[in-house]
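Proteins fold reproducibly. Take a sample protein:
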Amino acid sequence: MYKKQTSTVALQSQKWIAQALLRLLEQYSFKEITVTQICLEAGLVRKTFYRNFRTKEDIIHYIIDQLFLSFQTVFDIRTTPPLEIFTHYYEYWAKEKRLLTILHRDELFYLLTRKYVEYVDSVNLYFFQSHNGAFAELESYAVRFIAGGMVSILEHWLECGFKEPIDKLTQLTETLLLSANMYLSSSHLD
């Protein structure tokens, strides 16, 4: 993973490196881009790159983290009703269509799935709270189910040209998660 920086200079370097990679991705596939190209595009030396990132994939993780942090600053996920969260979720990603297209083109959606697992786990989506530990041993499976489902819906929406209206996707997502919640509440876990 990339290094979590605190100094202003290091934070700025990370931002420049990420912006450089995004510019290069407009012209080249992810596999074609080298660390040297990224450094040249950012106007930084390789030493600065390696002080902040280990690999090119780390830059993608950084970019996705910045997007998730930005998304989370809009509202408090823990107190916002699920329907509102999902509406904001699809609105937010619709604005990031270009990045999603690049991730899809370069077969990097798996990196988005990994980040989703981290974030879903950290927010413990709303229905995790109501089961009094009844499925604690299965919680990691539920997290991966939610993360994988959310990313798959997002990727399919992209593949369909963002044709489906956000309100329909929001309703579908809530219905699917409520179905999972009903399952978890039932005696299937006994």
User: Anything to note?
Assistant: The chain is about 70% helix and 0% strand. The chain has a mean pLDDT of 85.
